[in-house]
Amino acid sequence: MISEIVEDEEKWLAAGIAGVQQNAFYMHRALDSNNLRDALKYSAQMLSELRTSRLSPHKYYELYMRAFDELRKLEMFFKEETRRGCSIIDLYELVQHAGNILPRSYLLCTVGSVYIKSKEAPAKDVLKDLVEMCRGIQHPLRGLFLRSYLSQVSRDKLPDIGSEYEGDADTVTDAVEFVLQNFTEMNKLWVRMQHQGPAREKEKREKERGELRDLVGKNLHVLGQIEGIDLDMYKDFVLPRVLEQVVNCKDELAQYYLMDCIIQVFPDEYHLQTLDVLLGACPQLQPSVDIKTVLSLLMERLSNYAASSTEVLPEFLQVEAFSKLSSAIGKVIRF
């Protein structure tokens, strides 16, 4: 029975890849002859292969990567078109006529990337439009990969400090809001996957969800790399929003993984100055979450920070870091 399912899935994947390759061939031919309408038609047909519900996350990723490689070529063509005088605004409106919502969303993200680069509209307006548009895809697997694509094509175009996209209308707050919104929606889709399908397949679904966790965590890595997030913004805005999503999702797998991500991606100094908030979230996690390991990861990170320089020790004493950590670990051991 299992071998039949695997065999069927291989057939479905092969058929999907064949569909991507065939339409990509005609797309390339249209690109070579500067036929924009045919290029959009065949690219939309190519992206329709990603509408499948028959593949496991691992196989869907293989199909997605084939389409992703072709989208990079399409993005280069869009850039060339704008250099030749084609209006990026007209192009952005044109792709909105693609028939099905999933291909249309991928095409909008691709053109949107070129639109931001052109600076013909504030980056925050295009980013907001794209992240809102992705709400149209509520199928967990398809939605996760679409939003992962949005994250990929936008990460070097966020209005960060020192970025060419920072300006009067675009601020670091806009960049942070965009990434947080994408993260929140992706986490909801990821958590919802546990309820897809029969109860007897729960273990299989959790294994598949584990394979997709980095798609969600990538958003926190992007946040960790935004130069404009200073301690105040992290303390007042970023950490509360992230922890709100972590606590509210009430999912063991998501809570453990995301707490680990928070500890790994943000600076030691920030953890030290927000220790009360971070420790305060631990009792709100699901009882099955391995809080002991979460706390030991945090303890290890801060211990290494303390050992890195004698200059940081006064900070530790000021916030009573070690006594707070010891107290939190003690409570976990007692219960």
UniProtKB/TrEMBL annotation:
It holds the Pfam family Vps35. One of its GO terms (biological process) is intracellular protein transport. This is Vacuolar protein sorting-associated protein 35A. It comes from the Eukaryota. InterPro entries: Vps35. One of its GO terms (cellular component) is cytosol. Transmembrane segments: none annotated.
